[in-house]
From TrEMBL:
Keywords: Lipid metabolism, NAD, Oxidoreductase, Steroid metabolism. This is Short chain dehydrogenase/reductase family oxidoreductase. GO terms for biological process: steroid metabolic process. The lineage of its organism: Bacteria, Pseudomonadati, Pseudomonadota, Alphaproteobacteria, Hyphomonadales. It holds the Pfam family adh_short_C2. GO terms for molecular function: oxidoreductase activity.
Amino acid sequence: MTDLSGKIAIITGAASGIGLAGVETFVKAGAKVIAGDVQDEKGKALETRFGADTVRYIHCDVTDMGELEALMQSAVDAFGGLDILWNNAGAGGTPTDIEDLDLDGYDFTMNLLLKQVFAGTKFAIPHMKARGKGAIINTSSISAVCAGYAPITYSVAKKGVAHFSKLAAAQLAKYQIRVNAILPGFIATSIFGGALGMTREQSDQMAEMLAQAGGKMQPIGRVGRGGDIAEMAAFLASDAAGFVTGGEFLVDGGMTVGPPHSWNEEVASPILDALGITPEQAEQMRVAMASGSQS
């Protein structure tokens, strides 16, 4: 089991989804956690659940630089320092394509998904330098490496998060601050409902529906849960990952290994599909050709 005993962590977007799983996982591993979010009711419930000596909820809109900087300071004020920062907060952002690009939506999405990662890291550095080392984890996405998984503005921002993590790792290595990015695949969270304009309650319900129905989308045969990402984050935050920095870690159930026909024999390859040949017909042809070559 990952050991985070004695470490102090900040997780943004901590009141639900991947962030909530992060709080649960980090606490179980022995860390004290500052949980930043804008969902005050859920955030305060977290503090009540674990106790204020273990988890403190701080209201933080990560697009507000003052609130974000204060969030970093809150770890020092509450627990005496800062060892781990997980820049995890996010949402789907503007859904428009290039041709119909919503420029205001573009600015909002970039501020939410990319600028806050830059800024959160900047604000965390002096606190981590004071501790002599630190670990920063940034939530990117498989949409950073493949088209078709998310809107273009979201995807470009997440690509920026992944590359930023590598560049920051280079710049901060001299302070023994490690920086890594996690690229989640299809994780059943409320982000999908939020992108469709649903309420938070409706989005949470949709997340559970996705968890039940989405397994066929990936080779591993099940939808990812927040805990799958949280476990990777906990490892990257721990001393066990002391030689790991500048990495981009896919946690996607195999979604990016290849197109569906590469792992699902019931799906025709694009070539067969173009020729109008079903997988069954292709198998019949293979058997016939094999028989012919043996005669």
